[in-house]
Amino acid sequence: MPTLGGLLKKRRTKDSQTLSKELPGSTAGHTSTSPIAADNTHHHHLHFHNNHHHPSDNPANSANPAASIAKQQSNQSSASKAADGQTASMQSPALQPSTSAHSNASPQQHGNAASIQNIIHPSEHNTPQVSRTERTTKGKYTLDDFAIQRTLGTGSFGRVHLVQSKHNHRFYAIKVLKKAQVVKMKQIEHTNDERRMLNRVRHPFLITLWGTWQDSRNLYMVMDFVEGGELFSLLRKSQRFPNPVAKFYAAEVTLAIEYLHSLDIIYRDLKPENLLLDRHGHLKITDFGFAKEVPDITWTLCGTPDYLAPEVVASKGYNKSVDWWSLGILIFEMLCGFTPFWDQGSPVKIYQNILQGRVKFPPYLHSDAVDLLSRLITADLTKRLGNLHAGPNDIKNHPWFAEVTWERLLKKEIDAPYVPPIRGGQGDASQYESYQEETEPYGHAGDDAHGHLFADF
Ligand SMILES: Nc1ncnc2c1ncn2[C@@H]1O[C@H](COP(=O)(O)OP(=O)(O)O)[C@@H](O)[C@H]1O
Ligand SMILES: [Mg+2]
């Protein structure tokens, strides 16, 4: 029999079966800093990449860029200090065999206690002040603009490469999708939506899309390279996160989802595999493969089995609140090291468990966490937090989040609990797993049977 530990190590893949037609959205735009531009504006801030992508849109920068750089600098150094040399006190492994090879990967137990504790004063409602201006991203690049380095991740429909721009020499991530595969898996609309939704969003905790193009076989999406690796890897190495650590990541995710919902975008694939850590340890949500504009209700069965809400499993119409259910599963997984409906990796059993809806809370969970989780992981949509009159405020004002100062969190003023051990700006992909490289070269000319299906790229 396979062990629980063994199965949990595997990254989980999507499940999608298109049952409905989906709404088209819109794209338009203006130009912004890009990998193709000569690097005349970027030399001076190598170390603070994230702060400078959207100088006018990132709330952290709006007042005084110099001050915010200084702040990041001091955050960085104090957080690094906290992370160094404090790798010893692991929680006792609850379920998994030891992963001693990675013992240096779990300093997140300590430093954060202090940094989370200084987040007093829970705030009133706070809508992220992020511009809705869109970038021009169509057809801006070709493969010749980049040197492909290695694979960072593979998913159900795509492969993501670390690349270096030949123009400004910075590092980016390019997601490559094979058009034939997308068509075969009936993901045409989802893929067009992925591009369209990603193009609309700008938020400190969401990945930035710089441009897209296609050749006869593949679609390409250029994004920022997020250097710190997947939250999935950190979680599996750590087995589970202490309460304040899980709270920090959950809080950043909550702000990102709140923002997406304010644009009527459902995300639909929340899970640690899609949450990346930047060089300072803040989250970036990647993978908009199932993101979609849904003002009211939709029916498509898609997502990742462990994280699906019961109304999705039951093929009912559903709304944005499926993301709040998934947030509950995510918090549960961060605190426990496994998901509540997990069942030896079998999707059918997982779906049965989801429909039964019985969650066993391990005794080590804080009572505030249990309370929040039981209000998120609830099938009754008239009771699920996030879906009630106050919307996401019911989640943000829940006692489990009491210490979080939401405005400061949005500005990345709260130190992350764990700073990835990488050198920023160097194309350091050491936090990512190794993958067998693609053997088929990209950049084909010639017959293109599917190009017309992806006119936005
Ligand atoms: N911008 C990025 N920077 C670094 N790694 C990334 C980035 N985007 C994706 N990845 C890696 O590639 C993996 C697969 O990408 P994803 O968009 O999730 O594809 P899929 O839709 O196939 O799941 C991610 O889980 C992550 O490990
Ligand atoms: Mg993914």
TrEMBL record:
Low complexity bias (residue ranges): 57-83
Family statement drawn from the similarity comment of this UniProt entry: Belongs to the protein kinase superfamily.
One Pfam family recorded for the sequence: Pkinase
Ranges of Polar residues composition bias in the record: 86-112
Protein name stated in the entry: cAMP-dependent protein kinase
Binding site for ATP: 175
Location of the AGC-kinase C-terminal domain: 402-457
Highest taxon of the lineage: Eukaryota
Chemical reaction(s) catalysed: L-seryl-[protein] + ATP = O-phospho-L-seryl-[protein] + ADP + H(+); L-threonyl-[protein] + ATP = O-phospho-L-threonyl-[protein] + ADP + H(+)
